Amino acid sequence: MDEHYLTVSTVGEMAEAIRSLRVRGAPLIGIAAAMGVASAARRLGASATRSSVREACEILGETRPTAVNLKWALGRVQRRSVAVADGVELGAALVEEAQAIWDEDRAMCRRIGEAGLSLVPDGATVHTHCNAGALATGGIGTALAPIYLAHAAGRRVQVIADETRPLLQGSRLTAWELTRAGIPTTVIGDGMSASRLSRGDITCVIVGADRIAKNGDVANKIGTYPLALAARAHGVPFYVAAPRSTFDAATPDGRRIPIEERRDDEIRGLPGSGGLSVPADAAVWNPAFDVTPAELVTGYVTDAGLLSRHELDRLAHPAQAAGVTT
After folding, report:
1. Predicted confidence (pLDDT) at residue 266 exceeds the cutoff of 80
2. Which residue has better confidence, 141 or 322?
3. Is the overall model pTM greater than 0.85, yes or no?
4. What is the pLDDT of residue 319?
5. Are 252 and 287 found together in one domain?
6. I need a labelling partner for 131 at 20 to 30 A (CA). Which of 52, 125, 172, 284 fits?
7. Which residues contact 108 (CB under 8 A, 6 or more apart)?
8. Are residues 56 and 204 in the same domain?
9. What's the distance, CA 212 to chain centroid?
10. Sign of torsion, CA 62 67 71 76?
11. Residues 255, 86: Cα–Cα separation, whole Å
C-alpha cells in the first residue's frame, strides 16, 4: 500500500476532502475543518471578516451531517472570531484556536487510552470496526488508543479488524496503521464477525463513534449495530470510545440523529472488481452510519474515564454549544 499526502489550500478543497472521506474520523474532521477556516482567514489577512468566517463555517458544516464534532469545532472557531478584539488579526487568532483544538484532541486521545487500558490485558484479542485510530484523530485515536498504550506497555495484544464495507476503512486504514506499529492484526469480512466471536477468544469489542445521543445511543460507521448484536449474543463486552465532544446532549436519542446517505456507486463498484458488481436495474441503499442502542453498550471509554450509560450525565457536553448566533 502507498502513503500519500494531500495539500489543501481553500475552504472548497477542504470541504471536498471531508465529503469524499479523504479526511475522515469524527475528531479529525473537526480539526481539519477548524484548520481550513483558520487557513482561509490567514490568507485573507486584513480582509478577513467575521462574515467570511461564518460563510466558511457554513460551507464546511454541511459536508458531513452525522459527525457532531464537526459543528462543535466550527462553532468554537466562530465564537473565537466573534470574541476577537478590533485591531487583532483574525487569521492569527483562528489559527491559534484551531491549533488548540488539535492539541486538546491529542491529549484527549491519551486520556481515552489510559481510561481503557484495563480493558486490554496481556494476551488480549480486541475486535474493532472501521477506523478510530491515528488516521481518524489528532493523536493516537479513540478505539485504538487503549490498544496502542497496551502495546507500548509490553502487553501481548492482537486485533481483529473487519473490512468495513463498502469503503474498506478497516482493511485499508486500521490494518495498515496497526501492522505499521507492530501490532498483530487479522482482517476479516464484515459478515464473519459473529462466527469469529463465537470462538470464545475475543476479549472485548472496542469501536469509535460519530455521535452519541443523550441516552447513550451511538451513531457509528455502518456495520457497528450488527457487531454489537453479535457481541451481546456471545457474551463479549462491547465498548464505545469517544471524547466528550462526541456526546450530544441536544439529541435525546438515536432516532433523532441525522444519518448521512452516500452515493450509489460506492456499492455498485466493488473495490478491486474492475467494474460494476450490482445489476443496473437493482436499487441501492447506502447509509454511512447505523445507530447502536445504548442497552447494547457495556461502557463508554471517554477522556473523563470509563463510564456506564447511567453515568453519562457526569459528562460536560461541549456539543451543546456548537451553534452560534451573531
Report:
1. yes
2. 141
3. yes
4. 44
5. yes
6. 284
7. 27, 139, 243, 244, 303
8. no
9. 11
10. negative
11. 43
Q: Is a pLDDT exceeding 90 seen at residue 192?
A: yes
The answer to whether residues 77 and 181 belong to one domain is no
CATH number of the structural domain spanning residue 153: 3.40.50.10470
Which helix (H) or strand (E) segment holds residue 114: the answer is helix 90-116
* Same domain membership, residue 51 and residue 25: yes
Q: Report the candidate in 90, 86, 79, 72 with the shortest Cα–Cα distance to residue 326.
A: 79
Residue that the C-alpha cell 477542504 belongs to: 14
**Angle (CA) 304 305 307, round 5°:** 110
Q: What percent of the chain has pLDDT over 70?
A: 94
92 grid coordinates: 492569527
Domain that holds residue 15: 11-107
Is the pLDDT score of 204 beyond 60?
A: yes
Q: Which residues are catalytic?
A: 210
Query: Residue 177: what are its φ and ψ, rounded to 5°?
Result: -75, -35
Residue indicated by cell numbers 481553500: 10
Q: What is the pLDDT of residues 223-263, one digit of tens each?
A: 999 999 999 999 999 999 999 989 999 999 999 999 999 99
